[in-house]
Amino acid sequence: MRFISVLIPSFFLISSVLAGRREHLSLSHDLAKKPTNAAPNRLADSNNTPNWAGAIWNQPNGTFWLVTGTFIVPDITGQMVNSTAYASVGIDGGTCADIMLHAGVRLTVNSTGPSYDAWYMWGNEFANLFDPSVDISPGDTIRLTVGTPGGNETSGYAMIQNLSTEKDSIRNFDSQRALCGQNAMWIAARLSGAPLANFGTVTFTEATAEAHNGQTYPPQGATITEIVGPGDQPLTSVSVDGDEVSIRHL
After folding, report:
1. Which of 18, 85, 93, 244 has minimal CB crowding within 10 Å?
2. Predicted structure pTM score
3. How many domains does the chain have?
4. Backbone phi and psi for residue 45, each to the nearest 5 degrees, phi listed first
């Protein structure tokens, strides 16, 4: 498959039909206002949710049109069956959850072992798999990009590039509903009610969000969110340094 080498210009509720069943990811809309450059490593100063962790920008309507990030796929071999984790980048889904554009990799442990799938989402209901020829394995370097080029928030695209195998896939979308462009995010998440797979550390590098006014937003300064378990027990630790977001499973 031809590798896309063009230069791209410079959980909310997700329901996905993947592997033949409907799955639910849940993302809180009540976002904390404490930025990462205030206290980037203190859980007490973070916005905690049961299902997602990472960095998210909250800006006025119509701010963001492009979000990208690169990470190395972790190995989840030998873990509890039905445990899951997702790594994704996206536009909207936080303060604006009516419609969103996301792309990522799903990590799942099933009865036959671990599986790694690339998925995308446009809208607010269903996520779908990218071209299955874009195989994903532990250790692969994956670049994710979502965007709404041309200033038209009713159309967009999601792209995954496996830099290790030089294979890629892109999907284009159109809708009568427009993205808000309020949120840019780099996150790890789990299925609502499902065990969280131990993903070790997912680090998004070269993580940037582009605004319509030409400004580039690195994750530094965005809101940090952590996954917590029963009794507010922390399950992740998120840190941000410039254009890198590291999400560590505890």
Report:
1. 18
2. 0.83
3. 1
4. -100, 15
